[in-house]
Amino acid sequence: MASEEIRVRGTVQGVGFRPTVYRLAKACGLRGDVCNDGQGVLIRVSGSEEALAKFVERLEQECPPLAKIHELIRTRYTAELNCDDFVISESVSNKIKTEITPDAATCPQCQKEIFDPFSRFYRYPFTNCTHCGPRLSIIRAIPYDRCNTSMSAFVMCSECGKEYHDVENRRFHAQPTACYTCGPSAWLERADGKPVTASMFSMMDDVDAVCTLLQRGEIVAIKGLGGFHLACDATNEAAVQKLRQRKKRYDKPFALMARDLAVIEEYCIVNAKEKELLTSPVAPIVLLNQKEETNRQGRRGRGEEEERKFKEGLSLSSVNNRSPQHFHIAESVASGQNTLGFILPYTPLHHLILRRMNRPIVLTSGNISDEPQCIDNDGALEKLGKIADYFILHNRDIINRIDDSVVRVVGEKIQIVRRARGYAPAPINLPVGFDKLPPILAMGSELKNTFCLLRDGEAILSQHLGDLENAVAFNAYQDTLNLYLNLFEHKPEAIAIDKHPEYLSSKLGKELAQVNQIPLHQIQHHHAHIAACMAENGIPLNTSPVLGIAFDGLGYGEDGTLWGGEFLLADYQQFQRLATFKSVAMIGGEQAIYQPWRNIYAHLISANLWDKCQQQYTDLEILKFLDKKPLNLLNQLVEKGINSPPASSVGRLFDAVAAAIGICTAECSYEGQAAIALENLVDVNILNNNEEKLIYPFNFSFSANIYCIDSAPMWAALLSDLQQQIPQAIIAAKFHQSLANAVINMVKLLCQKYQIQQVVLTGGVFQNTILFQLITQQLQASNMNVLTHNLVPTNDSGLSLGQAIITAAKLITNY
């Protein structure tokens, strides 16, 4: 007989891990115990050597669906085991090194129960088990026990208690387990405060009534898993427009939720990988290509007969029995887009609401634009009361605000656009060389913010926290940061920030470093982008430098100017700027982000083309538009350097091209809108034509030990195309192909000169699928090793990981 202590670290709490250990130990004839503690799961077990080996083998093979074992350490146990059997012991609190499990979508077994009239969970909107349900959204402290969650307010009834303590039951130690008798409840309220009565509409219950309200064209605020959402019928143009006006979200595409895959497939092409994502426990929003038929029909909305029934509030059974293709998605859901963002129901509440809905609904964050999601009932009623007509509320507190994750599939690879529910806070294992390091806190960026905790060879990246430009969002960021620091008992010995002096996250980082008297590390924006991509691809600490291509809107450069089109020779400790795009003034500073015409004018004067434009291209719409602007004043701003910082931004180059051909020329309501619209215009057939005449020229120059890509000659050719009335789609395609060719030529030049083997593609511009694929495919065809993102977003959401890993590398080197 032998005794062992087995330490298991990873995602092993709140996922049915202890019941699995119990079942396997009993099957192998072992005695001992298992418990949760701050480091994960601790198993003390006694039996024959053969039985112990079989137990460990089966434990690794039969891990529960949501569990992930990162480390399993076996040591001989010399103390006496006072057990005649195998038991599950109470949790122990000590130093926290375990993981917190992400929230998981409703599992198939729970879905079946909520629609089974003979189940005690029939139509219960908070049904869950160890394989699904809330985790991060309800947790206050570790270990993950009911007393440390918002479920502590609900005392389990005898039936739930019986299942909770039955080791053979799927709900054994499922902390949020509850039912109608003892758990949270949901109810419907009107925004105007008037009572809701059953006579208003036929309904099984308040949750079922939401479906009827949506079908009637009402806007409903739904309290979900990690925050409120605003919902309306996605096939009702009037309802969608009403939601846009009330929410003040005028252009940005809305996400859609559909009852099942069959509904989604009426509108989009869904491949195997995308189906896997949609139906996974993560259940993210997946960006899907629309079917040509959907685009061709223009998403005209409902037919006259269906519209009449909606307006009269009559029975919808005859409408519901028809195939979903009869309901065209409203044009204003995602105007001008080639993709739609679809998500499947991921809570019982969503499943029950959509049971009778065989067409999509809009499901967008429950907030006023630029503010974080509402998470409590009173706050939602106050802030969303002028947006929503009705509220479906519940009394389970949301402790941690979590938005929906957004992903896409590009070339069979998953790319995360927004890392939130379902992914966070699952750790990212760090590469070789980063196993021993002090705890580090990285504060992230100003836009698309996340923060990062580094410890014990892993990075814990927060969920997407949004833009920190207003006070409400910044306060929410601080609240979430404090929660993480407490949950993980993380006491940083170094803090990393972006070099931009005006980022609120950087200012807070400086303050924390000063108050706690710990070192502060300022990390260059684009170096952080590149390091994040290296880290998630497992590039070891001492690897030779890579060529990092970092394209985005802007980041604070080493020389005090704004960068955004960079080619950096970089490792984890340092970088050298090898090439860049020619800097062009951002006239009006931040205004240039939202008024693309400022960028086209800045590019034309930078290229010394303005005089030529006034002589040769006076009939062009863009010239007529610019002639109405105060150009003399703008010229003075540029000449005197007043609120017109030079920027090498590829993002602003996209804006300039979009404005030139008549896309979002006057203004954008969100950053990147013009560039996204330009991408959606591309005629993909042109991309397959490699004739030289289809390429706009770019100039290369070399000065002060740095190469420069100049777009000036491109503008002359593009204006000529405009004058010849070449279609927008062809110009958009030529620009993408030309930019990709310029990048490829620069990469080949630099890789040959500096003997570089690996290329990193990073930065928000590489969310452009066409540019990304053109560059990736050509580099791979040249036998280059191309590193791209798939664990963290390529946009600024990944910056905090890069900031943390660079700081770690510097500290390790200094040690």
Overall geometric form:
globular
CATH top level class name of the largest domain: Alpha Beta
- Helix-strand category: alpha/beta
The biggest beta sheet reads: 11 strands, mixed
Number of helices: 28
Please indicate the percent range of residues in DSSP E strands (runs of 2 or more).
15-25%
- Indicate the radius of gyration in whole angstroms: 28 Å
Itemize the secondary structure elements and their pairings.
Blueprint: E1 2-11, H1 17-27, E2 31-37, E3 40-47, H2 49-61, E4 68-76, E5 86-88, H3 108-114, H4 158-165, E6 186-190, H5 206-215, E7 220-223, E8 228-233, H6 237-247, E9 255-257, H7 261-264, E10 268-269, H8 272-278, E11 285-290, H9 292-297, H10 304-312, H11 317-320, E12 339-343, H12 348-353, E13 361-365, H13 377-383, E14 390-394, E15 406-410, E16 413-418, E17 428-429, E18 440-442, E19 452-455, E20 458-461, H14 471-487, E21 494-498, H15 504-516, E22 520-523, H16 525-536, E23 546-556, E24 562-570, E25 575-581, E26 584-585, H17 591-594, H18 597-606, H19 610-616, H20 621-627, H21 631-640, E27 646-647, H22 650-660, H23 673-681, H24 684-687, E28 699-703, E29 706-710, H25 712-723, H26 728-754, E30 758-762, H27 769-781, E31 785-787, H28 799-814
Parallel strand pairs: 2-5, 7-14, 9-12, 11-15, 18-21, 21-22, 23-30, 25-29, 30-31
Antiparallel strand pairs: 1-3, 1-4, 2-3, 6-14, 7-8, 8-13, 9-13, 10-11, 11-12, 15-16, 17-20, 18-19, 19-20, 23-24, 24-25, 26-27, 28-29
Helix pairs in contact: 16-28, 18-22, 22-23, 26-27
